[in-house]
Automatic annotation (TrEMBL):
Gene3D superfamilies: Impact, N-terminal domain, Ubiquitin Conjugating Enzyme. It comes from Podospora pseudocomata. It comes from the Eukaryota. Residues 201-225 have a biased composition (Pro residues). Keywords: Cytoplasm, Repressor, Stress response, Translation regulation. The lineage of its organism: Eukaryota, Fungi, Dikarya, Ascomycota, Pezizomycotina. Residues 87-197 form the RWD domain. Residues 60-81, 198-225 are annotated as: Disordered. Belongs to the IMPACT family. It is found in: Cytoplasm. This is RWD domain-containing protein.
Length: 359
């Protein structure tokens, strides 16, 4: 590495008080020059050989601060995002599509501004809007900020993007809990709000009309699924859905409805199912389905037996991330199911030893 050595100082320039060369550059080590910038070693005003104290100040290593070379010593704004946000990004992109939540290409990497593409209600339709989301350094203790609309589908009516922006801000306010990531719940809440906002209001008829001879079959309402938080490990994501059921036919109908109406669930790697139902005259029904995840359904049913849950079914959906998890996958499946039972109010959580425990 090239170093610098002081060879001569021109004192003749003291009279006109102009900047003069302080040093000449050459190769060779010098103990005082390890931390000097190039500008400090090239010019200096009114310097003479008769000012050794001032020259020593110029050559002092403390006069040129060094940037930390250890990445752990970098400012907080330059550190990588926290693990909770990394897991949330991976989970959202696994569930809704690879481009659901991406860093903004027009902002610096340290800005924590992302583009969230809102998934459409109809999986076969193109996305309607995308929003700019900024994550504060203290996220998830503090909710993310929805800055503005990033883009909108020009084929949709005017005002659609503004409506989506307002509804998503309302969804963030409704679901955020300090210390817990919230974008997955916010998207689901946004879809509920959007359904209400776009549902047509029936107009009152002036007079009742006679009923037709044959009424068309009314489509069944969607099952009241309660979703767990997404659990992500090695890019595999697990989400549980729970719903009350009173018969085997109802449980099978709910599962068929879910697979028929939700493209993301239908295209998932596995949909592990279990239910327990109390019938009439003391009969009971228990069943499970691995859906290709060997032994997962039986373990899920065993969890329900241990928790003494009846008249409920659970569907745990897994999107495979490309890396095998081994036996760890069974723990993640049960963790998602337990969280779904807690959110559905079927079990309660008690703090034990500083940690929450489901009962």
């Amino acid at each position: 590495m090239s170093r610098c050595r002081v060879l001569s100082i021109d004192a003749s320039a003291r009279a006109d008080m102009t900047p003069v060369p302080l040093i000449q550059l050459t190769r060779g080590p010098h103990p005082n020059f390890n931390h000097l910038s190039f500008s400090q070693l090239t010019t200096y005003t009114n310097a003479t050989p008769h000012h050794p104290a001032h020259l020593q100040h110029i050559l002092s290593p403390q006069s040129s601060p060094r940037l930390p070379t250890n990445p752990h010593q970098r400012p907080k704004s330059q550190q990588t995002m926290n693990e909770a946000l990394q897991d949330e990004i991976s989970a959202l992109n696994s569930i809704y599509g690879d481009s659901t939540l991406l860093p903004s290409p027009t902002d610096p990497p340290t800005s924590s501004i992302y583009i969230l593409t809102l998934p459409p209600l109809d999986p076969t339709s193109p996305p309607s809007s995308s929003l700019l989301i900024q994550f504060p350094p203290s996220y998830p203790d503090v909710p993310p900020s929805t800055l503005s609309t990033h883009s909108s589908n020009p084929a949709l009516p005017k005002g659609t993007a503004a409506r989506d922006l307002s509804l998503f801000r309302d969804a963030i306010t409704q679901v955020h809990t300090p210390g817990q990531v919230c974008l997955f719940d916010a998207i689901e809440s946004f879809n509920d709000l959007l359904t209400l906002a776009t549902s047509p209001v029936p107009s009152p008829s002036p007079s009742p009309s006679p009923p037709p001879q044959s009424q068309p079959e009314t489509p069944l309402p969607p099952p009241p699924w309660i979703l767990s938080a997404p659990f992500t490990e090695l890019k595999s994501t697990f989400v549980a859905r729970t719903v009350p059921v009173t018969s085997v036919s109802q449980a099978k109908g709910y599962l068929a409805h879910l697979l028929a109406t939700d493209k993301k669930v239908r295209s998932a790697t596995h949909n592990i199912t279990a239910w327990r139902i109390r019938g009439e005259n003391g009969t009971s029904y228990q069943d499970c389905d691995d859906d290709g995840e060997t032994a997962a359904g039986g373990r899920l049913l065993h969890l329900m037996q241990v928790m003494d849950l009846w008249d409920v079914m659970v569907v745990v959906t897994r999107w495979y991330g490309g890396q095998k998890l081994g036996p760890r996958r069974f723990a993640l499946i049960n963790m998602a199911a337990r969280d779904g039972f807690v959110r559905a109010g079927l079990v309660t959580e008690e703090k034990e030893g500083g940690r929450k425990k489901g009962r």
